[in-house]
Automatic annotation (TrEMBL):
Organism: Algoriphagus antarcticus
Keyword Protein biosynthesis recorded: no
Tree of life domain: Bacteria
SUPFAM superfamilies: Winged helix' DNA-binding domain
Protein name: DNA-binding transcriptional regulator YhcF (GntR family)
UniProt keyword annotation of Phosphoprotein present: no
GO molecular function, one term: DNA binding
Keywords: DNA-binding, Transcription, Transcription regulation
Stored CDD domains: WHTH_GntR (cd07377)
Domain HTH gntR-type: 7-75
Pfam families: GntR
SMART domains cross-referenced by the UniProt entry: HTH_GNTR (SM00345)
Length: 125
């Protein structure tokens, strides 16, 4: 994994695991790599991975079964969707809307985006 210098590594690891859950690559009830395994794979300190796991445990995304390991919580995907939608609406969308305004973009400029959103609406019905 290539880490971004603008964000803490433990948060990037958390985001990577969250993305794996949202994409269905890791499912509810599934065991995730041990702290040691992930630290070796990502070439980071075990404490960094442990910090990521602790955060995800606090958020209710993963559960620690002592002596066995960490597992994806049953409702992890729905919690992540709710958290990330809210973060997008609060943090990212206002910046995007500002850029649309500054660049004087109109609906024809954004037609591909509009079609994608409409396509998602049909899939979710």
């Amino acid at each position: 994994m290539d880490f971004n210098e603008t964000k803490n590594i433990f948060l990037q690891i958390r985001d990577w695991i969250a993305d794996q859950i949202l994409q269905g690559k890791i499912v509810a009830g599934e065991k995730i790599p041990s702290v040691r395994e992930l630290a070796v794979d990502m070439e980071v300190n075990r404490n960094t991975v442990m910090r990521s796991y602790s955060l995800m445990e606090e958020e209710g995304i993963i559960e620690n079964k002592r002596g066995i390991g960490f597992f994806v919580a049953a409702d992890a995907k729905s919690k992540l969707l709710k958290m990330q939608k809210q973060a997008f609406l609060n943090d990212e969308l206002p910046m995007i809307l500002h850029q649309i305004e500054v660049l004087k973009l109109n609906s024809s400029d954004l037609q591909i985006l509009i079609q994608t959103i409409q396509s998602n609406d049909h899939e979710n019905q």
